[in-house]
Amino acid sequence: MPLNGPALGHLQILLVEDSAEDAELICDMLEQAGVAASFQRVDDEDGLVEVLSSGRCDIVLSDLSMPGFCGMRALELVRELHPRMPFVFVSGTIGEEMAVQALQQGAADYILKHSPGRLPSAVARAVREARSEAERARVEAELMRAQRLESMSLIAAGLSHDLRNILQPLLIVPDLLKTRSDDPRIHQLADVISECGLRGSEMAESMLSFVRGSRRSSERIEVERLFNAVDLLLRGSLPSKVELHTELKGSGLALDGNFTELQQVLLNLALNAIQAMPEGGRLQLLAEPVTDVDGCAQLCIRVIDTGIGMPSDVMERLFSPFFTTKATGTGLGLMSCKRIIEGLQGSIQVTSQVGEGSQFDLLLPISGGGAVRSESIGDLPVGNGQAVLVVDNIATRLSLLGNALSSQGYRLSMASDGAGALHHVQQHGLPEAVVIDTALPLMPASQLLRELRALGFSGPALLLEDPAQPVDPAALADSGPLHCLRKPLEMQHVFRAVDAMLAEAANASAPA
Ligand SMILES: Nc1ncnc2c1ncn2[C@@H]1O[C@H](COP(=O)(O)OP(=O)(O)OP(=O)(O)O)[C@@H](O)[C@H]1O
Ligand SMILES: [Mg+2]
Questions:
Q1: N or C: where does the chain have the smaller number of CB atoms within 10 Å of the terminal CB?
Q2: 278 preceded by cis ω (within 30°)?
């Protein structure tokens, strides 16, 4: 076997050659050497361009001079159309200067017709080199893509961390407002702000878990709560001529999913519907149990509008990324709805009539049961002057936590790092409980706790942990009672946690 190396397979060889006999000789020579190939021959520019743009070709073997065409021009065209296609000159004569020029322009080799013995190995080598070059480029592109993703995930992680800190006040302030006012309008506005804060921070987390490749956490969601949240967010922006109607056909309808993602789906659909009704109309959100073709129970959520409707060419491209008919649209809304719904093993069905309206049906697996996330603020527990030390290096969160806890009746002291906390304790005595952010710079939370215990602190500690860096209580090796709350914080959860841990500590120390 004259051709060593990896198998070439069956080659498509394009000959640029005006002489049929010479072409015949080339084919024979290659076949005798064991090169399995099909041949095509062209002898002018049009023919070459046609074959190159229509069919598959593995290598071009070209004569140097032909009547009305020239090998150098053929090389130029091949380079233009397929920069990596191997190209070998097979010519009666080729001067030294011309040979150098040919190689410089990207020819892989040149063979003289009167001594063609090297032709098969030159063809095999040129094809193999081109293939390994293509493979190298593919791997390089793959690596670049992986590196880009890697840096994007770092940026997203950083952004979502900062975003969570910025949104923190939106989660804390509304609860404070509600405890300080009986005005129902203030309560409603506070709900809007806290819903937005929650949505924003969950989105930041969703972005993080998406780049990390993990699924968003799933929970049992009551459709009624979902509709209420969407209703709350839409009310403020609903044009006066659009009437919003929500209806649940059935009680206790629920599904398993991520609340923020589902809320985002309904908001996207509702906003599209509102935008489709510039003259006003009726927007309906309906939920009902349905049975699919296999008789399985499913949940159907319908978003129906009486807007402009969609012609078939819009319907066909609805879910394509960046498809929009709006001057300022991104064309990403429906794509992201589809991604979320399909991630929940659901599907979206669309029907529409131009001039009459559109209907988007979300078909989702119905929830089997489980704990429902409860959002009722209820009666918040209050303290009775217990000393609580809060240690957090994020100034806004520190002052909000401090304000909130002291407004609930605790005696607050605050420090922005471990050294400050220890100094405070040495000056003013031990607190009854501590609240410590686990992302403290310099002195980590674990060390601060150890130092506090060494100073005689035996009360409960509430650790505010970063979802990206969960705390392992065993690794902390702390001797006292430990509690954890995940950031972003909701003030009511902080109040409940502080109350519960102080009560637990009081019970533990009470005489039996
Ligand atoms: N309810 C609807 N009625 C009529 N047309 C719709 C409706 N929903 C979507 N469309 C059409 O589908 C297109 C794509 O919607 P999608 O939500 O993906 O992007 P967008 O709304 O154009 O942009 P963005 O969501 O960023 O505002 C819209 O531009 C619109 O032409
Ligand atoms: Mg949209």
A1: C
A2: no
